[in-house]
Amino acid sequence: MALAENITHIRERIARVAEQSGRDPEEITLIAVSKTFPAIDIRKAYDAGLRHFAENRVQEGEGKRAQLSDLVATWHFIGHLQSNKARKAVELFDRVDSVDSIALAKKLNEATAQLNKRLGILLEVHMGEATKSGVSENDLPALAKIVALLPRLDLLGLMTIPPYAHDPESARPYFSKLRSLRDAAAREIGRPLPVLSMGMSHDFEIAIEEGATEVRVGTALFGQRQKPLSNGN
């Protein structure tokens, strides 16, 4: 199936499950996870109507952005970000959706001040896998309170990647938990956190049923992943 057809099919699935859940499909953003795919595929996706793209390595993102400087798109960083690459990430990306520590948040805030920018961020919460990055549920409230006070960062919500399982339904408790954590964090800081980024190619419909406002889809759009272009962030 061609990329444009894949996009149409995914949008139809998003709309169907949103309507079944009593939600407006327009409130759900489809983010194309373009990591490991070449710039030409991103351009094709853009031409087919997508406007949000996600990368997980700074160096790889930098190479692609150089080839796609004419696109009016929103670029998300979704990988584990090393603090020493915070400035470069701020230069390249509109959002960092994987903030998991006070130290990283402060580095991003310093970089945005130096570059005279603002940066939208999500806090990544890890859900039980030791190999996954992210802040723990117990440490989330303290992190949210501190990040909410950093003047150059716009704290928008939470992100998670649940443990992989063949049955998409297995992800439901994790998505439900993230929604509860988001609501609690919003009460803690005294303002709304509108974004819940959760759900990928195999489980995004379950995520939408549980309140996702952004779904991150890669293989269902582009096909099987290619070899990474870079080993570094």
By DSSP (H or I, 4+ residues per run), the number of helices equals 9
> For the residues shown, what is the average pLDDT?
94
Radius of gyration: 17 Å
Low-confidence stretches: 229-233
The CATH superfamily label reads: Alanine racemase
**Strands side by side in the biggest sheet:** 7-6-5-4-3-2-1-8
CATH architecture classification: Alpha-Beta Barrel
Question: What characteristics describe this protein?
Answer:
single chain, 233 residues, alpha/beta, TIM Barrel, eight-stranded parallel β-sheet, 9 helices, disordered C terminus
What report would you give on this structure?
There is one protein chain. With 233 residues, this protein is α/β, with parallel strands linked by helices. It has a single domain, classed as Alanine racemase (TIM Barrel). Helices cover 40% and strands 16% of the residues. It has nine helices and eight strands. It has helices spanning 3-20, 39-47, 58-67, 86-92, 102-115, 140-147, 172-189, 204-209, 219-222; strands at 29-33, 52-55, 74-77, 95-99, 119-124, 153-159, 195-197, 214-217. An eight-stranded parallel sheet has the order 7-6-5-4-3-2-1-8. Helix 2 links the parallel strand 1 (29-33) and strand 2 (52-55).
